[in-house]
TrEMBL record:
Region annotated Disordered, chain positions: 21-68
Lineage: superkingdom: Eukaryota
Biological classification of the source: Eukaryota, Fungi, Dikarya, Ascomycota, Pezizomycotina
Protein name in the entry: Uncharacterized protein
Compositionally biased intervals (Low complexity): 40-51
Length: 189
């Protein structure tokens, strides 16, 4: 809408002419007008573009932990070896292809072998006694699911009357009651 201040000298017919001149000056040339009187170039700009709607990514599926742990004794001659040497020794010992065990990682209790697929994993587990004897392993095992529980408001020292109570035993008993499992380790925080 165009607002024009009226002057006393303008008659209604001259006002229409003035408005018509201004509107034609603002409009595009007649050759680009379509049958409906809409500029084809501006019509294509004014219509919203259909952008592809991105779907939300599906939640990641939890991957199984396919590692095989070689739990070594601290005095084992293999405890300080390089991961490459351990991986090569297992491959040679079990006559596996070099691509069957693509990874080996150092963990606090020994080494973790990463087999290529489930078939290689089953082969390693089938020969766990031989691997244990060869490397002096305490245990050859699959990963276990661990849970950490925090028990709050436990004093470092408790007394029942004048008798001191062992808080470690009390916490172990409470964990057994709540989880039906005995804790592996306890530590104050």
């Amino acid at each position: 809408m165009l607002l024009v201040p009226l002057q006393p000298s303008l008659r209604p017919s001259s006002l229409k002419l003035l408005l018509k001149r201004r509107s034609t000056a603002l409009s595009p040339p007649p050759s680009t007008l379509t049958a409906k009187g809409v500029n084809s170039a501006s019509a294509s700009r004014s219509t919203p573009r259909s952008s592809p709607i991105r779907k939300a990514a599906p939640p990641p599926t939890p991957q199984s932990d396919g590692r095989i742990f070689l739990r070594l004794d601290r005095d084992s001659p293999f405890a300080n070896n390089d991961t490459f040497a351990i991986r090569k020794e297992v491959q040679t010992f079990l006559r596996l292809a070099p691509t069957d065990i693509p990874g080996c990682h150092k963990v606090p209790t020994g080494f973790a072998l990463v087999p290529k697929n489930d078939a290689v994993r089953q082969t390693l587990l089938a020969h766990k006694d031989e691997i244990s004897a060869r490397f002096g392993c305490v245990q050859v095992e699959v990963p276990k699911k661990w849970a950490t529980y925090a028990v709050q408001n436990v004093p470092m020292m408790m007394r029942l009357g004048m008798v001191p109570v062992d808080t470690t035993t009390a916490i172990k008993d409470e964990m057994l009651v709540q989880t039906s499992q005995e804790p592996i380790a306890l530590r104050p925080s």
